[in-house]
Amino acid sequence: MPKHAIAAGAALALCAGPAAAELTAQGVWNDWQRVYNAMGSTLSAESEDYADGRLTLTGVTTTGTVGGFETISSYGTITLIEQSDGTLRLDIPARLEIVTETTGLGAPQIQTVVMESEGLDAFIREDGPARVYDIDAARLVYSFSDDSGEMPVTAVVTMTGTESLYTSTTVGDLLNLDQDVSASEMTLAVSGAEGTGDVFDMSYALTGLAMDVTGTIDLSAAPQSTSLSEMGLDFTGAATHSGSTLSLDVESSDTGPFALTGTSAAGRFGFSLGADSIGYEISSTEATVSVQPAAFPVPIQGSLAELSTGFRLPVGVSETPKPFGLALTLRDLVVDDAIWGLFDPTGQLPREPATVALDLEGTAVMSTDIFGDPEAMAGLSGPPGELKSMELAELLVSLAGAELTGAGALEFPNPGPIPQPVGTVTLALNGGLALVDRLVALGFVPPQQAAMAKGMAGMVAETVGEDQLRSVIEFTPSGAITANGMPLR
């Protein structure tokens, strides 16, 4: 597992802990340590000093191993202060240096993140059986640099108006977590430069950021687990924003300058993690982009009503099928007329918005743990599992007056190096022949190749309307493939 993911999980668990009968600094610290131990990790401090209701923890360190990767994170000094109203105040230095070292595959990787805060207030309180963390900050700045590659890189993340409400409740061996975070704005600035004169600067800003994460951890399962699928984790979460801006400038000694700018009206990021799969999805709406490549006569400008992508991957080794999936959508893509004019100056092609959508789902029996066995993945010579089923929930390509759609479902009952599918896929093409004629008129396709393409389409598809073709492709148990009943193999 990447070191960034492990460090993020460590920071989350640092705030976890079962509710105690009395909220004391030492009790909360002990609870944090018990949770870490239950998850097969350790949380320690070089020294603990308690006086007058203040517990000062110097040299706080977390250590954990997941999927063959060992991660050690150092958080510096943290102080827990008992308040007269029965709450605890968490005192974090205005400048906190977090050093993370990850080993397990190749040379050790060390990353230092500096967190600087303004107006940071963090309190811990009891609410019935739940422990609640209220954290507010006027400004949070996270910065790090990486000079291990050919081009040294620095990055700064800034969050303003941050509010976080984190709740943990323990029921038996289950630790239930819920966190809501909001920020008025978040910005990311990344820059890099090398001695040859190559430089880049990127900035990305989000407004109206809101995030919600819920999940459970089975504390009895985690210590005995080396695989992500067996750690007793079940999490879902989503983050939304109300607008974004993107800017990228690159100066290359080989290719010259490159510039990109973009905006979106709103967006969403979602993720899930369970015993069977891990997945994510990211989307933006009402997006615009402008790209100026080096030595290109005009900027490439366009807009999208929706841009989204997502995947779902199986985790762990299994004897029963686990789900996977892939989704991609570019809806209502509009390209500036200046670009159309470069290759279609006479307006031969319809210029209505274009759409590409793909939604693919399936199941597989996994023979290799792709998230928990790095050595097996490094030595993998074939697929990490056996494909069992696949469903084409949606296929849509709409471009220049033509539209291709498809749907179907396949089973793979016979395992082997090349899985043999059984099932049916239906494809339909509307306006495809007219598009071929327009491409011939533009000189993009020779007339002979166009005639051959039309002839092949007539062999594998049936006419169901004016310039409308449909093909039902069937994969039989005997290994044969037919299109509308005509044998293809």
What does this structure look like?
This protein is mainly beta. Among the domains are: 268-400, no CATH class; 404-489, no CATH class. It is built from six helices and 27 strands. The chain has helices at residues 3-14, 25-38, 337-343, 374-378, 432-442, 447-460, and strands at 42-44, 47-51, 54-66, 69-82, 88-91, 95-103, 109-118, 121-127, 130-146, 153-171, 174-193, 199-218, 233-241, 243-252, 256-264, 266-273, 277-292, 300-314, 322-335, 354-366, 385-399, 402-414, 420-430, 462-465, 468-475, 481-483, 486-487. The protein has a 27-stranded antiparallel sheet that branches. β2 (47-51) and β3 form a beta hairpin. The longest helix has 14 residues, at 25-38. It starts with a helix and ends with a strand. Residues 1-21 form the signal peptide. Keywords: Signal. InterPro entries: DUF2125 (IPR018666). Pfam families: DUF2125.
